[in-house]
Design brief:
alpha/beta, five-stranded parallel β-sheet, two-stranded antiparallel ribbon, 10 helices, flat
């Protein structure tokens, strides 16, 4: 918000005329990584020449919720993937406290398996394909981060919100596997600046990060996390079943920290304010919100559109910082 007004208007004009401009919070980056930092991956800030990342992509935090409800059985194939986990039993409505407890237990397995795989991958990569050319451009003693991440945040947040604030009844197949849900009543959705849903999302991010930090990292890397998906939303959706939120099996996930597709009903600023409630200290690898706007919805002419977009960006980043 402290940037020169002319520069902000120029950026807004470029966004309106060309689309796909990415904005980052310089406050957050400077406070954590110093003045000489740059975006080294999609939304990952790093100290230039002094830092590197062991890339870790992300895990499907939404599918983990379905595994928790089904006791480790895959909701699509029916196969037991995670042993020694008890499913939610009975045909009555789901209980939030019970589901959350089982979800945390499932996250222990998911995160443990995930980080162990990353440690093995990066050990092997350094041993057999060390990137000596790139590392020659860095200081001898560098900061290493392990870039973990989660996908499907908004789906988990909305599903847990539905279980907590509405009535969610599981639908089972002939084997007892939960394959669908009947949700009755209204419930708050993440992305509308409603603390009831937004706090659930923030708690999920914090919980996953705490579980990641509890595991030793290869080469003593600093564990980090991103809330980011760009190209994999369709793939995640195809491999995942239906949710209490109403998200249907096989349909694409919303990208990154975005609200569920169609769930944000209060406009762009409200979704920015919801994302701003996610604690950056729990996601130092970056938090991504992708907004698509028709320029005409911002105003009647270019000047009005620029003014309104600058105002939205200022309001969103002030709250986030």
């Amino acid at each position: 918000p402290e940037l020169p007004e002319g520069y902000k208007k120029f950026c807004a004009k470029v966004s309106i005329e060309t689309s796909s401009i990415q904005y980052e919070s310089d406050h957050q980056i400077r406070d954590r990584w110093g003045d000489d930092a740059a975006i080294a991956c999609c939304v990952s800030p790093m100290k230039v020449g002094k830092q590197m990342q062991f890339f870790g992509a992300r895990v499907n935090s939404a599918k983990a919720l379905l595994y928790a409800i089904n006791g480790g059985r895959d909701e699509v194939s029916g196969k037991l993937v995670v042993p020694d986990h008890t499913p939610v039993e009975g045909d009555g409505p789901l209980d939030f406290d019970e589901v959350w407890k089982k979800y945390e237990q499932m996250l222990d397995w998911v995160v443990g398996t995930y980080v162990e795989a990353l440690n093995i991958i990066h050990y092997c990569h350094d041993r057999y394909a060390y990137e000596s050319m790139e590392m020659a451009l860095h200081d001898s003693q560098i900061t290493r981060t392990m870039g973990c991440g989660i996908a499907g945040l908004s789906i988990v947040a909305d599903s847990l919100s539905a279980i907590k604030y509405a009535k969610v009844t599981p639908v089972r197949d002939e084997t007892g596997l939960v394959v669908d849900y009947v949700t009755e009543g209204e419930f708050p959705r993440y992305g509308n600046d409603d603390d009831r849903a937004d706090d659930i999302a923030a708690t999920i991010v914090h919980t996953v990060m705490e579980k990641i930090k509890a595991i030793p990292m290869y080469r003593n890397a600093i564990p980090t996390q991103s809330v980011l998906t760009i190209t994999s939303n369709v793939v995640y959706g195809k491999a995942t079943g239906s949710f209490p939120s109403g998200h249907q099996a096989g349909t694409p996930f919303a990208p990154g920290a975005n609200p569920e597709n169609g769930a944000d009903t209060h406009g762009m600023l409200a979704s920015m304010l919801s994302v701003g409630k996610l604690d950056y200290s729990d996601a130092l690898d970056g938090i991504s919100l992708t907004n698509t706007i028709i320029p005409s919805s911002l105003g009647r002419n270019l000047e009005e559109q620029i003014e309104n977009l600058v105002g939205i960006m200022d309001a969103g980043f002030i709250k986030k910082d």
